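Table S2 (text version). Query chain:
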Amino acid sequence: MDKRKLKIARAKIDRLDNSIFNLIKKRTKVVKHMLSLKKFKRQIVDQKRINEILKNIRKKSILHGVDPKITSRIWKTMIWSFVNFQRSNFKKK
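Corresponding structure-token output:
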């Protein structure tokens, strides 16, 4: 194992993680705005929209040579994490 190359690769992962973090921060802001537009808690989960997103991610993954099992799992986790966030932050109007 080449420790120098490993250190460089880990630094690249750290930079990517920072970029992902900033995107999640932006996504959270949009989700908060969307939540403010919802009048009923039942509006939080749109299964049709979730299925559409997962279908598109799968297609995009295959097209770009990324394992769709990985991307699907990541997106499902992200979607349901934001669903739970919305459920816990929903305030009746």
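Notes on Table S2: The chain has one domain: 3-89. The chain has a mean pLDDT of 96.
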